[in-house]
Amino acid sequence: MRLLAFETSCDETSVAVIRDGVVVSNVVSSQIKLHEVYGGVVPELATREHLQNLPSVALEALRQSGTKPDELDAIAATQGPGLPSALMIGLQTAQAMAFSLQKPFYGVNHHEAHLYSPWITGVPARACFDTFEPSVSLIVSGGHTLLVHVKSELDHRVLGATVDDAAGECFDKTAKMIGLPYPGGPALEQLAIGGNPAAYMFPRPMMHDASDDFSFSGLKTSVRYFLRDNPSIFSSSSGLRDLCASVQSAIVEVLVTKTVRAARRLRVGCITASGGVTCNRSLRKEMEIHCLKNGLKLRIAEPAFCTDNAGMIGILAERKILKRVLSTGLANEINPSWSLD
Predict the structure, then answer these.
(1) How many other C-beta atoms can be found within 10 angstroms of the C-beta atom of residue 54?
(2) Per residue in 231-272, pLDDT tens?
(3) What pTM, to 2 d.p., does this model score?
(4) CA–CA separation, 108 and 116 (whole Å)
(5) Which residues contact 155 (CB under 8 A, 6 or more apart)?
(6) Are residues 79 and 171 both part of a single domain?
(7) Radius of gyration for the alpha carbons in the chain, expressed in angstroms and rounded
């Protein structure tokens, strides 16, 4: 089976070719430099870049895989959630290609693709669903923080989500308050190296709450007040390192604590984590420590599949085909708020 997948939900233009469970090409064109001056993603600019870059990205994905369009068996694209105008570029391109080639089309939920991305591993990257087992999965990114109970392949239930800011948003906005460049999360993580994570005690919102929901707006507000009351910290390199380490520690502790607690409550033996924030080394390390301590297996998406990419979209679409899930109609529209449930 050969499948072509498109991903344009936000500010990465990506196209991948999947062949029999292997990601044979996964081309990603980033827009970080474009949005850097604005301190965040500008939807109109992201859409314009997708329009400009998608043809060359698609051609490169096909070239790298040695695949001709008429050799494809199916086409897939992110249908939602995401920025409406950005989603439309990838979805309609994929639908038009499926129509012209007379191939089945699959619209994929972006969160669901992240959910199963930890099962893509190796060089070359390959889907390893033969080792699949029930898990509690953390999906954490700039726009979303979700905790999901995965009972079996393609059978999952959302346990909790953020009630306000996502964890990645908290990273980015805290970094912006400190004056760090966009994207803020990686910059904050870098500055936190060598800092004391116990230097400042910031709140851990909802960490001890009985639900599986998250909240990070209170932590962000706490940092704002701290900076207002301690302006001298901007002139102290060690103070800024301690601040970043302390903020990072608070976010990571909430994510790890709630994920491990849910896994123990549901008596599953495996935790998975995915999404852009799982590139954070502190989060990966703390997950490893706490899973080992609690006798839990851990699968974290490999860095190339943490951020938005078409490889994970294509792998999930292929699994749906193999599980005989019906294809998506070519007239189906984008679904910017598509829930994982």
Answers:
(1) 20
(2) 999 999 999 999 999 999 999 999 999 999 999 999 999 999
(3) 0.95
(4) 12
(5) none
(6) no
(7) 20
